[in-house]
Amino acid sequence: MTAVPIDLELEPQRQELARLIARMAPEDGIHESAIDELVLFRASEPSPITHTLYRPALCIMAQGQKVVRLEDESYCYDPLNYLVASVTLPVTGEVTQAANDAPYLSLRLDLDPAELGELISSAGPIAVTNRSSGRGLHVDRMDLPLLDAVLRLLRLLETPRDIAMLAPLIRREILYRLLCSPQGQLLRDIATTDSQAHRVNRAIEWLNLNYHKPLRIEELAREANLSTSTLHHRFKALTAMSPLQYQKQLRLQEARRLMLCERLDVSSAGYKVGYESPSQFSREYSRLFGAPPVRDLARLRAAG
Fold first, then answer.
1. For the whole model, what pTM was predicted?
2. What separation in angstroms does the CA of 75 have from each of 45, 61, 93, 228?
3. Which helix (H) or strand (E) element contains residue 94?
């Protein structure tokens, strides 16, 4: 196991963040909090690769390490590096560093593009430190002002009476810190009405609501108010996949959930997410998850 480097300037705050998460998430799993947008995570051992859908969010690690994969790209984050998803993305995640005496401890703070847009309008011009990579998932180096604001937000869970008054103020500060970060330009673009990134995000959200419908690129381009060529180019730049590949991952992840959680049979799940051919559904499912549906579900149920 590779040790995560220590930043002496951040270490006291990191240790306090780890103590708070460990106290508020005493058992392994996902823990909702009294702050609606804030979720805590704990794991006492490395996890298998998990397929999931990342919504716009800030993810911060207090202890441990995790690798998130978007298509062929890997993003490793740890206590020195935070991860931001600026749009909704189908990804895989894997906790790579965790133990009973040093569990994986992290938090997720959901981001609202509308709230970002309102902040941009009221704050006026925000200095740009660097141009964004253009990808809807990125890792940035943690700094003290951002870590301090996140720590103050988490402390509010110990004084619930203060949450209603102070949590919105601290959230606003966190959003401001992200907008000022090296990758903040993309967040600004997505939150700015009628920018190309904002229009592509409209196409992404439309696909998330309508993944079960046949995909016609011309209709999706009209929904985003972009030409088909611009939509295809910018969509791939943001998500690392084409609209069709994106839709396919949405369909297959939802079909897996339906079979696992709602006990739908293979044919019914495939049909419900938009597949007309059971054989095509099985082939594409096997390519994504590494096994046909029946075998994959048996493996998941045995592991769970």
1. 0.92
2. 20, 13, 9, 29
3. strand 89-97
